[in-house]
Design a protein that fits this description.
heterodimer; A: about 260 residues; alpha/beta; 8 helices; B: alpha+beta; about 55% helix; elongated
């Protein structure tokens, strides 16, 4: 009963999610009957050894990959009950992504990269550009808006990625090893930025990481092994959690 | 084709292949690396081979077309000459008898295996009556010993076509061509007009048109063989001033073609035997050698013309190869970085690529042979239809498909060398990897500054090319005028980019080269007069490369008008934005495709516009070719129309024909002018002075000081030093004139019968010589016109009254007049040629050839489309991760597909529009600067519909080629594309 209530209130709820990889005759269970809820405003770190299913978890819960069983609700909507097109639209509206290797569009400038999800969501070009500039300013790149990815450092590129992920005020941001390609100093800056966004804006963030320090700093730490959740620790963080702005400038808080 | 080039090509082929083999043997590691790359990446290997195949195929296709024409013309050696190698002709009976007697001494010569003397004349033939009546105004009649003729050439009927007994009086042996034309067989009656008198004959037998039976020194091989004495008696009875010709055929030892080897030696012996007769009207003709040479020249001419047309496609193929190879290296970037990191030198990397490239080049060239033969076959099938639309008299020819080993070897070697060198040079570029960025798959970035020594070297070279440009432009040299200034600008770029922003420099340089390519013909109007195909190829390359470079440097400016559309927050807007961003950012790749497209479309549209221009000029050409004379009447010089100027304008023709200008006709040779390397056949026309008064053949150029066209004609008619020639003198094959002549140049005009030579000055050049081709029933050779008195003075009896130009009265149909003339003057073997009909037929053939060339060029378009397809396939692979991100961000699959299709459409459309616009502009400037169009009232015709169809077809084909990769892109699953693995 408690689970059902949690699910109903949760921004994201995964119920008995199963994912199997098949290579010829061999089947590997990457996620085994996984249950998880994420509340709005949480910053969740997912850790585990290689092959434990962290990235698969992120891919499946964000709808990037199909699942073989169970269901995933985001803002109360079952992702896998939707068509691919509807899921894509939902993703554009409700989710942001930060990848380890930045994955910026190389032929677009920083501002063009950031405004892309806004345009996908139907925001008029002028407003999209304005919002992109704001977000770049927010991540400290207000002076690099016209640069292309190959003209930016790794840390700057990751900041652009974060700005892009947040530009459309998504309900949830997925970050997969966001510091994996950065040196320690840059990594620290990026982690601080994510925490800052979470604290100040109440942005829900789910991040996959190998870095124990990053995991330790999150409000909630989920550990995985062999496709299963083996621990789920919640900590009380002094400020920020659930402290998102209610004036519409912060992220949406889910249904 | 081109056997003389085989040794050099094969040597180069062997050197390149041996170099690759040496590396492969000496460095097993490199060999393993290269060969395993080929085996591992079979898809890519197929792409490279596919890209190279077309180059070889186009080359071999062109050579095969040349082989076929050479072979087809050479067939005349079997049908019209057989064992005959040399022909000795005397204009009079007495001299002919003496010549025959003198030539008997050759019978014991070890190089000669036959001497046969006959008498020859022209006649008209009629059979049947009323509705079944058939008439042929122009046939050849011979009398002689047919038993001897049957044995002529070394064996009984050894290819001579004549076997069996000599006909008796009243009998005629006819060859199959004549029998078919007249519809007669053995026993049938046949009336021949011998020296104007109708003489009845019975067909004794029909013999195949082969060897002596098919003998022809002109375009017609409809022959009848009569009893000895028949012609001589007929000439005497008619009191003709022209006696039957005495013709002695000489056969060299050897077969039909190899007997030609002894021609020079035997000719010397013939001349020695004839003694003084050669200067008194007895001519010696190396007929076999002339025919074989003409066959080679025609084959080489047409083959090289197709090679010229195909060169644009070959260049497109080279670019495709470069593009594919660069992309191949991009994909292996991390691998190359690793190899360099573990200590492999750059030179070894290049060698490894060279081994790999050699494998591709060899396989592609071998496959290209088969494809090339197929291409050649297709061209021959279409060309055969065009040739078949003409009769033998009109220059028609039956094409027989033929492929020679020499062409295969040459095409294979050339195709291999092009692919090998392209791959080798590209390897030098792609081996220059930054190890770290290659290993980590990072963008290379950074601007490479040209080293100081290269800057100095290129600046010095720029100074040299600038120095070379000055005299080239001053002399209006075609190639130099275009090439040297362009090279100067390009070579100055390394220096200029140190002084000014790169984009400014490149934009200015591209604009300068493009501008010069467009206006050079205006600044130096004679620059394209030398007709060199190389100049046209260089011009096409200059224009397209510079235009593409200009566009590539300024894509952002060009796409600015579409910004509003691209910024729309709709799937279409986003797809467009992405679609344009990639080509704009990837300058090299996009530029290579743009060049491929624009180069081929440029040529295709140019041919379309020229075809349209040709159609628009029919009336003008008719005016130029007729000179106001709608009909040309050719008749038998042995039985000419007496006083044609009066006869043809009086009696039943008094109201229909207003003027008739008689023409004397003689065979001649021209030498010592322009780039003519050997004496060239011409038909010498001695015109009555009335030609300058009653009509006017427009001239394209005239000697300064003589005045306008009419004044020039008058000068030629009154001053025997002057001649008027045709601009196609010395040209073979198709296409534009291959040589340029200028009024004021001198030439040597020789009477082959007497050897008498005179130096003449070119007073003018005809705008069109079409009205004079085949005049007097002669072969289809270029005319040289002088006054009748000048012709008589030099050629004596050889200049015979054989033709008249006929001016019809206003409102009278040339068709009616022509038919009436032929009916009325059948005894004179009159053949009336309607100039308009001849011109329209010629234009029809030109249209056919333009279409054929367009088809041939479409191969190049295939290269461009294949290139685009390849690039898009590669783009999908390269951008998997980006596609994954876009899909993760919410890009619908359909938008991804749309983006790829839009991107390919954008690049293809840009290349197509660029090529088409450049082509229309270039052809407009050529039109504007061509003096032959000045004052004609012909507007510049732009075939909008044809161009639109061409553009639409190319665009749709491009879209189809990229549909599959676009579909694949849309199917990429985001999670897989991002390769996010635990």
């Amino acid at each position: 009963m408690q689970l059902a209530t949690d699910h109903a209130r949760a921004l994201l709820a995964a119920e008995d999610v199963r994912k199997v990889y098949r290579t010829g005759e061999i089947e590997v269970e990457a996620l085994v009957d996984l249950n998880l809820t994420v509340q709005a405003g949480e910053m969740v770190a997912v850790m585990g050894p290689s092959g434990s299913g962290k990235t698969t978890l992120l891919n499946c819960l964000s709808g990037l990959d199909d699942i073989d069983g169970g269901r995933v609700l985001v803002e109360g909507k079952d992702l896998f009950a939707m068509s691919d097109a509807a899921r894509t639209t939902h993703r554009a509206r409700a989710m942001g992504f930060v990848f380890q290797s930045f994955n910026l569009i190389p032929v677009f400038t920083a501002a063009e990269n950031v405004e892309l999800p806004l345009l996908l969501g139907g925001t008029p070009a002028g407003q999209a550009r304005k919002r992109a500039m704001e977000m770049l300013d927010r991540v400290g790149l207000g002076h690099r808006t016209r640069h292309r990815p190959n003209e930016l450092s790794g840390g700057e590129q990751q900041r652009v990625t974060i700005a892009r992920a947040l530009a459309s005020r998504p309900a949830i941001v997925w970050a997969d090893e966001p510091t994996g390609n950065l040196d320690s100093q840059m990594a620290e800056q990026i982690v601080d930025l994510l925490h800052e966004l979470n604290r100040a804006d109440g942005q829900t963030i789910v991040l996959v990481t190998h870095d124990a320090d990053i995991g330790a700093a999150a409000q909630r730490l989920i550990s995985m092994r062999d496709g299963r959740l083996v621990s789920d620790e919640r900590r009380v963080v002094a400020a920020g959690v659930g402290d998102g702005r209610e004036d519409g400038s912060g992220p949406r808080r889910g249904a | 084709m081109y056997p003389e080039r085989t040794p050099a090509l094969v040597t180069l082929l062997v050197v390149c292949a041996a170099a690759a083999a040496y590396i492969a043997v000496r460095r097993p590691f490199l060999r393993r690396l290269a060969l395993r790359q080929v085996a591992r990446r079979r898809g890519e290997a197929m792409l490279v081979i596919g890209g190279s195949v077309l180059g070889t195929a186009i080359i071999i296709g062109s050579l095969v077309v040349g082989d076929t024409l050479n072979f087809s013309v050479r067939q005349g050696a079997y049908t019209n000459l057989g064992p005959i190698d040399e022909i000795v002709t005397s204009a009079t009976i007495a001299q002919g008898d003496e010549a025959a007697a003198r030539l008997r001494e050759l019978r014991g010569d070890p190089q000669v295996d036959g001497v046969l003397t006959v008498r020859a004349a022209e006649a008209a033939a009629v059979t049947g009556a009323d509705a079944s009546r058939r008439a042929e105004p122009r046939i050849s009649v011979y009398e002689g010993d047919l038993v001897a003729a049957g044995e002529f050439g070394g064996s009984a009927d050894g290819g001579s076509g004549l076997g069996g007994p000599t006909p008796v009086r009243g009998e005629a042996v006819v060859n199959a061509d004549l029998a078919d034309t007249m519809g007669v067989g053995p026993g049938d009656a046949l009336t021949l007009y011998l020296y104007g008198k109708p003489t009845p004959f019975r067909v004794a037998r029909v013999v195949p048109t082969r060897g002596v039976a098919g003998v022809s020194t002109g375009p017609v091989s409809r022959n009848a063989f009569l009893a000895p004495g028949t012609l001589v008696e007929a000439a005497r009875a008619a009191r003709s001033t022209v006696e039957p010709r005495t013709v002695t055929f000489v056969s060299n030892v050897g077969g039909v073609e190899d007997g030609d080897a002894a021609s020079d030696a035997v000719e010397g012996k013939i001349r020695a035997a004839l003694g003084p007769l050669t200067g008194q009207g007895t001519s010696v003709e190396k007929a076999k050698q002339a025919l074989l040479d003409a066959a080679k020249a025609a084959g080489d001419g047409l083959g090289s013309f197709f090679l010229f047309i195909g060169s644009f496609s070959i260049i497109a193929g080279v670019l495709l190869l470069v593009n594919i190879f660069v992309m191949l290296a991009e994909e292996r970037k991390s691998e190359l970085g690793m190899l360099r990191a573990i200590g492999m030198k750059r030179s070894r990397l290049v060698r490894s690529f060279v081994i790999e490239g050699t494998v591709y080049a060899l396989v592609a060239s071998l496959v290209g042979i088969l494809v090339g033969i197929g291409v050649g076959r297709a061209v021959v099938v279409v060309a055969a239809q065009i040739f078949n639309s003409f009769s033998a008299e009109e220059g028609g020819l039956t094409l027989a498909f033929n492929v020679t080993p020499v062409s295969i070897v040459n095409g294979f070697a050339l195709g291999f060398l092009i692919a090998f060198l392209t791959v080798a040079l590209t390897s030098l570029r792609i081996s220059r990897v930054n190890i770290i960025s290659a290993i980590r798959d990072l963008p290379t970035g950074g601007v490479h500054r040209t080293r100081r020594r290269w800057v100095i070297a290129s600046t010095v070279l720029a100074a040299l090319t600038a120095a070379a440009a000055v005299p080239a432009i001053a002399d209006s040299q075609g190639l130099g005028t275009y090439l040297y200034p362009a090279l100067t600008v390009v070579l100055l770029c390394p220096l200029l980019v140190r002084l000014a922003p790169k984009r400014w420099v490149y934009t200015a340089a591209a604009a300068a080269v493009l501008g010069w390519g467009l206006v050079a013909n205006t600044v130096r109007p004679k620059v394209l007069e030398n007709g060199s195909t190389v100049t046209f190829v260089v011009l096409g390359i200059m224009l397209t490369f510079s235009a593409v470079f200009l566009v590539s440097q300024n894509q952002d400016v060009l796409t600015r008008p579409f910004r509003r559309f691209m910024l729309r927050p709709t799937p279409g807007g986003l797809a467009s934005r992405l679609a344009i961003a990639y080509p704009v950012a990837r300058k090299f790749r996009t530029g290579a495709i743009l060049i491929m497209y624009s180069l081929v479309v440029f040529t295709l549209v140019l041919i379309t516009v020229l075809g349209s221009l040709v159609n628009a000029t029919v009336d003008n050409e008719v005016a130029n070719a007729s000179g106001g004379f709608a009909v040309r009447a050719d008749f038998n010089p042995a039985n000419p129309i007496p006083d044609p100027a009066r006869t043809l304008t009086s009696g039943r023709f008094s109201g229909a024909i207003t003027d008739a200008v008689p023409l004397l006709v003689a065979p001649g040779k021209i030498s010592n002018v322009g780039r003519l390397s050997r004496p060239t056949d011409t038909v010498v026309i001695g015109a009555d002075p009335a030609i300058a008064e009653t009509g006017l053949y427009p001239l394209t150029k005239r000697l300064d000081g003589l005045g306008d066209d009419r004044a020039t004609w008058r000068a030629v008619m009154t001053d025997r030093r002057y001649v008027i020639i045709d601009q196609f003198l010395g040209s073979t094959g198709g296409g534009p004139p291959t040589m340029t002549f200028t009024p004021g140049q001198t030439l040597t005009l020789t009477d082959p019968a007497t050897g008498r030579a005179e130096q003449k000055t070119i007073a003018g050049i005809l705008k069109s010589g079409n009205g004079f081709y085949g005049v007097g029933g002669t072969s289809f050779v270029s005319p040289t016109i002088l006054s009748a008195s000048a012709a008589t003075a030099q050629f004596g009896g050889q200049a015979k009254l054989a033709s008249a130009l006929v001016k019809t009265a206003a409102g009278v149909s040339d068709d009616t007049v022509a038919a009436d003339l032929q009916g009325q003057f059948l005894p004179q073997s009159l053949v009336a040629t309607r100039v308009r009909q001849a011109v329209e037929k010629g234009f029809g053939a030109s249209r056919g050839f333009f279409q054929l060339m367009q088809g041939f060029l479409a191969l190049g378009l295939l290269v461009g489309i294949a290139g685009l397809g390849v690039v898009m396939v590669r783009a999908v692979r390269e951008r998997r991760r980006t596609i994954g991100v876009l899909r993760a961000l919410g890009f619908p699959a359909s938008t991804v597909q749309r983006a790829f299709l839009t991107e390919s459409s954008f690049v293809a459309s840009e290349g197509i529009v660029l090529g088409a616009a450049l082509s229309v502009l270039t052809s407009y400037l050529l039109f504007e600067n061509d003096p032959s169009f000045a004052g004609t009232g012909i507007g510049f015709p732009i075939p909008w519909l044809s161009i639109a169809i061409l553009i639409a077809a190319a665009t749709v084909a491009s879209l189809l080629a990229t549909f599959w990769p676009a579909h694949q892109a849309a199917r990429i699953r985001p999670a897989v594309a991002l390769r996010i693995a635990d």
